[in-house]
Design a protein that fits this description.
Helix content: over 70%
Number of domains: 1
Low-confidence stretches: none
Mean pLDDT: 96
Structural class: mainly alpha
Number of strands: 0
Shape: flat
Radius of gyration: 15 Å
Order of helices and strands: HHHH
């Protein structure tokens, strides 16, 4: 169950990271409220996941999901460049996330 909570927390991190763009510096009410809610929910779920998972593993996976997800969504939503180098390094993040899961022992 902790891994499920952690993945959801990571996906919510993607939501709030992308949401930051839509808040326009927190000048738009609805995107700001939704982004704030995603931040709080992501942190709460991360905290719950760390009850069972090592903090280094949980935080690393959470950050990795957020970084890869925000990178992909930035390419899709904001036409950010999808260069071979960028895709290569994002794939390394995915390998690191899988590696942390496999070696966590839980």
């Amino acid at each position: 169950m902790s891994w499920i909570l952690l993945v959801i927390a990571g996906l919510l991190e993607v939501c709030w990271a992308i949401g930051l763009k839509y808040t326009e510096g927190f000048t738009r009410l609805v995107p700001s409220v939704l982004t704030g809610g995603a931040i709080v929910a992501s942190m709460v779920l991360l905290g719950l996941a760390t009850k069972q998972l090592p903090i280094g593993t949980a935080y690393g996976v959470w950050v990795g999901i957020g970084a890869v997800g925000a990178g992909i969504m930035g390419m899709v939503l904001f036409q950010e460049p999808a260069t071979p180098a960028r895709l290569f390094f994002m794939s390394l993040l995915i390998i690191a996330i899988v590696g942390l899961k496999v070696t966590s022992g839980r």
